C-alpha cells in the first residue's frame, strides 16, 4: 500500500532527528574554526565607565537594574574600573568585569554577559596575562569561579590555585556615599589558599594561550613598573608554610609535599569554624595513583 507503520514512522523520525543533529553539530564545529578577534579594554575614567553595562548586559548594573548608579560610582572612584570584552567584528560589548585595586593586585568580580555563545575563557586569560606582564598591576586576583567558571578552570589548569591564604589591603573600598550601602557587602578580605588564584610575574609564564595577543595603547611603550607584591599570610598560611618547609628539609617527608594544598584547605576550615574535617585532606588527591607513582 506504500503506507508506513507506526514503528517505521518512528524510525524515520529518529533518523531525521539524528541527521539534523549531526548537520547542526558539523555547522557549529565549522563556525568554531573561524577565527574571531576580541578586544579587552580597561575603562577607569568617568565617561568610559558610564558607557559600560548597557541594557544588553544582564545584571543589577544595567540601566534598569537596582544598582544602576554603581556604574557612575566606578567611574568616579580611583580604586575601581571595568574590564570590557568587545567583539571586534560587530563592535558589541559582550562581557564586562568589575575590578577592585588592592595593594596585592587587581581583584576581579563575576563577569556579566549579553548572552552570547562564544567561549571567552582564553580571551580573559590573555587580558590578565597582559595586565601582569605590562607591569600595570602586581598581580591579578581571582576568587574561585571568577570571572566565569570556564575562564577560572582554564587558568587553574596552567597556574593552579594559591597554596597559602593571603590577606588583602583594601584601603579605599568603602561606601562612596554615607546615605546608601555600596557594592562591597562584605568588603573583600582575603584570597583563600587551595581555592583561589593569584596570577603574578612569578607564574604568568606558565599560562599558555592557543592564539597570539596584541597590546595596543595610547602610549608607544608602557613603563616597566617594578612592584613588590606584599602577601600578608594568615595563621593557617603560616602553619602550612612551616609544615611545607619541614617537608622540604626532611628526606623522609619530602614525598608528601603534594599534600600542601589539601592541608591548607583543612587548616583553614579548622581555624575558621573549629571543624576537624580530615576528609578535606583527601580532596583532589588520588592516593592510589600517587602510590603507584612511587613504585
Would you write up a description of this structure?
The protein folds into two domains: 197 residues, Aminopeptidase; 62 residues, no CATH class. Strands 1-2-3-4-5-8 form a six-stranded mixed β-sheet. With 295 residues, the protein is an alpha+beta fold.
Strand ordering within the main sheet: 1-2-3-4-5-8
N to C succession of SSEs:
HEHHEEEHEHEEEEHHH
Shape: globular
How many beta-strand segments? 9
SSE inventory with pairings:
Elements: H1 6-32, E1 38-43, H2 46-50, H3 70-76, E2 80-87, E3 92-101, E4 106-113, H4 121-133, E5 139-142, H5 149-159, E6 166-167, E7 190-191, E8 197-200, E9 232-233, H6 235-249, H7 260-273, H8 287-293
Helix pairs in contact: 4-5, 6-7
Amino acid at each position: 500500500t506504500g503506507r508506513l507503520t507506526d514503528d517505521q514512522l518512528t524510525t524515520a523520525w529518529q533518523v531525521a532527528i539524528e541527521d539534523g543533529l549531526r548537520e547542526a553539530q558539523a555547522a557549529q564545529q565549522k563556525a568554531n574554526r573561524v577565527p574571531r578577534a576580541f578586544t579587552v579594554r580597561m575603562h577607569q575614567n568617568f565617561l568610559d565607565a558610564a558607557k559600560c553595562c548597557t541594557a544588553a548586559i544582564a545584571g543589577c548594573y544595567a540601566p534598569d537594574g537596582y544598582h544602576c548608579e554603581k556604574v557612575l560610582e566606578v567611574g568616579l572612584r580611583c580604586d575601581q574600573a571595568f574590564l570590557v570584552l568587545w567583539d571586534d567584528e560587530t563592535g558589541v560589548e559582550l562581557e564586562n568585569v568589575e575590578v577592585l585595586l588592592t595593594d596585592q593586585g587587581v581583584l576581579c568580580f563575576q563577569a556579566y554577559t549579553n548572552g552570547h555563545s562564544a567561549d571567552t575563557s582564553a580571551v580573559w586569560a590573555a587580558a590578565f596575562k597582559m595586565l601582569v606582564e605590562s607591569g600595570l598591576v602586581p598581580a591579578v586576583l581571582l576568587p574561585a569561579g571568577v570571572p566565569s567558571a570556564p575562564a577560572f578552570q582554564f587558568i587553574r589548569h596552567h597556574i593552579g590555585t594559591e597554596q597559602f591564604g593571603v590577606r588583602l589591603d583594601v584601603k579605599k573600598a568603602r561606601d562612596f556615599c554615607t546615605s546608601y550601602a555600596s557594592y562591597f557587602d562584605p568588603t573583600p578580605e582575603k584570597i583563600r589558599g587551595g581555592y583561589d588564584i593569584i596570577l603574578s610575574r612569578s607564574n604568568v609564564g606558565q599560562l599558555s594561550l592557543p592564539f597570539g595577543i596584541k597590546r595596543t595603547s595610547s602610549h608607544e611603550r608602557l613603563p616597566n613598573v617594578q612592584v613588590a607584591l606584599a602577601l600578608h599570610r594568615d595563621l593557617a598560611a603560616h602553619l602550612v608554610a612551616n609544615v611545607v618547609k619541614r617537608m622540604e628539609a626532611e628526606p623522609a617527608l619530602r614525598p608528601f609535599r603534594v599534600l600542601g594544598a589539601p592541608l591548607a584547605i583543612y587548616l583553614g576550615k579548622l581555624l575558621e569554624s573549629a571543624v576537624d574535617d580530615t576528609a578535606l585532606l583527601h580532596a583532589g588527591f588520588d592516593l592510589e595513583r600517587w602510590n603507584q607513582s612511587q613504585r
